């Protein structure tokens, strides 16, 4: 079983950080909190270390990992040929929930990025993550700390549930505040391209760049978060309009099945996991709600989406993927 370290809050205990950083230096796997979701970290410069991430997650080795850094000033250390656009975004949004895809630098092992010539870089906005990155001193490759294709973890307990017997250390820093993954923007081409909506709204990126961002989500294999079915619990997920909630639950009763409901629904029902109607509050609780609904052994999770808020497109993206037909 993984060794559990940390205070369970964003308070940093340096002895825990030292131990976790040592584990990374030994080529081990360390799960750590970020403001978006928990990451499963390994030394980004070592092929043998990152191989453990792919194995623990059950993730195909061609799917590139994001590299986390302690400081935006390290941009040139882990990249090559950085554009003015990349620097502008880094200055404006780091530390924060934005991953910037740039040319890969030599400090990043080719295996970390599945042999691609680019790398996604990010400086997370979480005191525990930053303390770990600073103490370790190198780049930390970290996908979300869940089994491939399933729901991302927003607590240390979620990580233990999914990967406790496959990894070395879990740093508990409390619940992730944002609750959906980082926005990914590719600035290696002539036009900035959105690869995944996430914790920073697209309009904020456009405001800083002073130009529109194109939708980069058309070429399927570029980012596995783009695969149709992803972020999915074990139960079937069906998206519904709020005014359909009563009828949809009644169908479950008619069929003798266990249906539960997640979202800002006015329904009171035994198997319901209420979330705020505002997309940002909704995002913060979404993955925990889906995991908890899954533990109830439901046949179907009915999900009512939020109606507004800056993170609406990120939430709708994740809900659509959770509800997509399974491969
Ligand atoms: O918020 C986040 O981004 C979290 C935390 C832990 O930082 N990480 C995360 O990683 O969500 P992951 O591996 O679950 O999702 C990263 C996505 C994948 O869809 C991957 O394909 C894409 O980023 N990606 C990574 N490097 C890329 C690259 N060089 N080019 C295109 N897509 C890339
Ligand atoms: Mg993931």
Write the topology of this structure:
Elements: E1 3-5, H1 14-25, E2 30-32, E3 39-43, H2 47-57, E4 66-68, H3 75-78, E5 79-80, H4 84-93, E6 98-104, E7 118-122, H5 127-136, E8 140-141, H6 156-163, E9 169-171, E10 183-186, E11 193-196, H7 202-209, E12 214-215, E13 236-239, H8 245-255, E14 259-263, E15 272-274, H9 279-295, E16 300-303, H10 312-323
Parallel strand pairs: 1-9, 2-9, 4-7, 6-10, 11-12, 13-16, 14-15, 14-16
Antiparallel strand pairs: 2-3, 3-8, 4-8, 5-6, 6-7, 10-11
This protein binds threonylcarbamoyladenylate and magnesium ion.
Helix content: 25-40%
Largest sheet: 12 strands, mixed
| Class from secondary-structure proportions | alpha/beta
SS element count, helices: 10
């Amino acid at each position: 079983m993984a060794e559990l370290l940390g205070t369970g809050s964003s308070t940093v205990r340096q002895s825990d950080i030292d131990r976790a950083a040592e584990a990374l230096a030994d080529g081990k796997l360390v799960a750590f909190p970020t403001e978006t979701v928990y990451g499963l970290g390994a030394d980004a410069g070592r092929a043998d270390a990152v191989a453990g991430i792919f194995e623990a997650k059950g993730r195909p080795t061609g799917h590139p990992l994001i590299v986390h850094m302690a400081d935006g000033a390290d941009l040139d250390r882990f990249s090559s040929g950085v554009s003015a656009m990349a620097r502008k975004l880094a200055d404006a949004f780091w530390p924060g929930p934005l991953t910037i895809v740039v040319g890969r630098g030599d400090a990043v092992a080719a295996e970390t990025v599945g042999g691609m010539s680019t790398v996604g870089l990010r400086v997370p906005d979480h005191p525990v993550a930053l303390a770990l990155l600073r103490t370790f001193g190198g780049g930390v490759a970290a996908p979300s700390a869940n089994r491939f294709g399933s729901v991302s973890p927003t607590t240390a307990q979620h990580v233990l549930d999914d990967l406790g017997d496959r990894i070395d250390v879990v740093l508990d820093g409390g619940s992730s505040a944002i609750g959906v993954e980082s926005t990914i923007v590719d600035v290696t081409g002539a036009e900035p391209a959105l690869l995944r909506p996430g914790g920073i709204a697209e309009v904020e990126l456009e405001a800083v760049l002073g130009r529109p961002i194109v939708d980069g989500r058309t070429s399927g294999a570029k980012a596995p978060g783009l695969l149709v079915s992803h972020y999915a619990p074990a139960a079937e997920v069906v998206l519904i309009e709020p005014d359909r909630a009563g009828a949809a639950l009644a169908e479950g009763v008619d069929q003798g099945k266990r249906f539960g409901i997640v979202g800002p629904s006015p329904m009171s029902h035994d198997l319901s996991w209420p979330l705020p109607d505002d997309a940002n509050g909704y995002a913060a609780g979404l993955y925990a709600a889906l995991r908890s609904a899954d533990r109830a052994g439901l046949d179907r999770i009915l999900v009512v989406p939020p109606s507004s808020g800056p993170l609406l497109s990120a939430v709708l993206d994740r809900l659509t993927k959770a509800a997509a037909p399974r491969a």
